[in-house]
Model the fold of this input.
Amino acid sequence: MIKIITLNFFDEVIKTVKKIPQGKVATYGQVASLVSAPRAARQVGWVLSRIKSPTDIPWQRVINSKGMVSIESMAVSKREQAKRLQAEGVEVVFRDGNWFIDLDKYQWRHSELT
DNA sequence: GGTTTGACCCTAA
DNA sequence: ATTAGGGCCAAAC
Done:
């Protein structure tokens, strides 16, 4: 049979984010690519913003393409995410009010070649 | 069902 | 190098 649309975009994103190993991070665009929607980076962020309740999802490992923590939302603070990442062994640098992560070192390379 | 809104990304000036 | 603007796709209103 043909698989039309079994999972929602929401579920796809959740599933992908859960695959990010501890100590690694992924960008929104990267996650978007994994769910076959390379241009849907914003929606990934939208999905993650809607989670916030269960801690099952490692939303902390998803950052923007600049390697910076984008969150400045009401629910969760950037510092909160930074602390979570540091607890996982990710080196986070605080600079000019934002938290930066070295993507070269910590970006998740799911199965990509270099 | 059209409009607005994003935890974004890319290109141009 | 930094700043500004448009585009993008999916969900909420």
Remarks:
- Residues 7-105 of chain A form a domain with the Arc Repressor Mutant, subunit A fold (CATH 1.10.10.10).
- Helices of chain A lie at 9-19, 28-34, 41-51, 78-87, 103-106.
